[in-house]
Write the structure tokens for this entry.
Amino acid sequence: MAKLMVADDDRVVLFTLAEGLREAGFEVIEARDGLRALALCQSERPDLALLDIRMPGLDGLELARRLRGETTVPFLFFTAHDDEDLVQQAVKLGALGYLVKPLDVPRIVPMLRAALARSREFDSLRAALHSNRDIGTAVGIAMRGWNLDQQTAFERLRKHARDRSARLVDIAREIVETGACPET
């Protein structure tokens, strides 16, 4: 079950949306202002945050900036404002969607599921990029340390991982952290 954080200063909208999302099968945490929403995202780590743009404390745009800088929680906006400038700001901040109130929960559920799927894809890509970066860096360290060409250094690292019954990415991270090749 996906966990959603919904932030809106309007009690009626917050209650209606949160209850509708619970009925649709989501776990929902709620915040009535941007500062509380940020704290919940930091502590609860929801799978997706739904942010109103106009809120006290931190408005939705500033909250999105903070989420990007301080967490890995993906977000989308829902607001009564369909102003093109706000839409462009949301896009620049990396929003996975922009919904205009009033919201009809059954109609937005497919979009939320799509945003959650896209977020998981981004997480996988980030993990793969990080892993590949570590492996590439470790191969470079091995090339220099063992005086080998790239392919031979890569194969030696793979053999070293197999011999230790370890994953190549774990061996690579160890090499990157220490800056030295393992003894062969």
User: Anything to note?
Assistant: Residues 105-146 form the longest helix (42 residues). The two ends are 46 Å apart (CA to CA).
